[in-house]
């Protein structure tokens, strides 16, 4: 609970008009980071809080959100970029483990280069890797949706013509064309 004395001090400070010093402005500029960006859903135990703060600060400076909606969208962008970085690390570790596991489980009568090729093939067709790739796609979609919406809102705020709220990704899959044809 906040004491009556603290409430009165807050009221007095609020009438002073905000931060005046360069140092104070530098600290207050980080306030969006302090308001929910470090939730346990984004930063996992063992991950670098400093790296996350650096990413957050860099994106806040680059995207320059104004208002709660833009800040929320930038929070979403930061979280998705962090998740993509995490996913790439998990993917790398999973593929390395799979490759080593396959090499050790293969027959040693085979030539070493054949063992390596088989291990790499098994590593690439692993179910876990496919799940990670689906996860990556979902996170990327969320990232780009937030980024596009932020761009639309900022364009409208700046008096520019707002781009349409849509993005179209075209994927040409020649492998499936051959199977269907």
Query: Strand percentage, roughly?
Result: under 5%
Q: Measure the end-to-end span.
A: 70 Å
Show unreliable segments: 32-40
Percent helix among the residues? over 70%
Q: Give the overall silhouette.
A: elongated
Query: Mean of the pLDDT scores?
Result: 76
Biggest β-sheet, characterized? none
Rg, alpha carbons: 24 Å
Query: How many helices?
Result: 8
Query: Which secondary-structure class do the elements indicate?
Result: mainly alpha
Element string (H = helix, E = strand):
HHHHHHHH
Q: What's the β-strand tally?
A: 0
Describe the structure.
The chain is mainly alpha-helical. Helices cover 70% and strands 0% of the residues. The chain has helices spanning 4-14, 22-28, 31-34, 49-63, 67-105, 112-124, 127-157, 174-180. The longest helix is centred in the middle third of the chain and has 39 residues, at 67-105. It is elongated and about 80 Å long. Residues 32-40 have low confidence and may be disordered.
Task: Give the topology, please.
Elements: H1 4-14, H2 22-28, H3 31-34, H4 49-63, H5 67-105, H6 112-124, H7 127-157, H8 174-180
Helix pairs in contact: 4-5, 5-6, 5-7
List the keywords.
single chain, 181 residues, mainly alpha, 8 helices, 0% strand
Could you give a short description of this structure?
This protein is mostly helical.
């Amino acid at each position: 609970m906040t004491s009556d004395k603290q409430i009165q001090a807050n009221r007095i400070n609020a009438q002073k008009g905000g931060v005046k010093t360069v140092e104070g402005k530098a600290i207050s500029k980080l306030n969006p980071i302090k308001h929910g960006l470090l939730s346990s859903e984004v930063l996992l135990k063992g991950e670098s809080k400093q790296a996350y703060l650096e990413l957050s600060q860099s994106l806040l400076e680059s995207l320059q959100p104004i208002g709660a909606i833009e800040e929320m969208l930038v929070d979403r962008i930061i979280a998705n970029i962090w998740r993509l970085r995490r996913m790439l690390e998990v993917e790398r570790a999973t593929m390395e483990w799979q490759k080593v596991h396959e090499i050790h489980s293969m027959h040693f009568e085979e030539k070493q280069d054949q063992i390596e090729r088989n291990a790499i093939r098994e590593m690439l067709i692993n179910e876990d890797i496919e799940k990670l790739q689906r996860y990556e796609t979902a996170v990327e979609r969320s990232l780009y949706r937030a980024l596009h919406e932020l761009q639309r809102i900022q364009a409208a705020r700046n008096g520019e013509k707002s781009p349409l709220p849509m993005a179209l990704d075209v994927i040409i899959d020649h492998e499936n064309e051959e199977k269907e044809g």
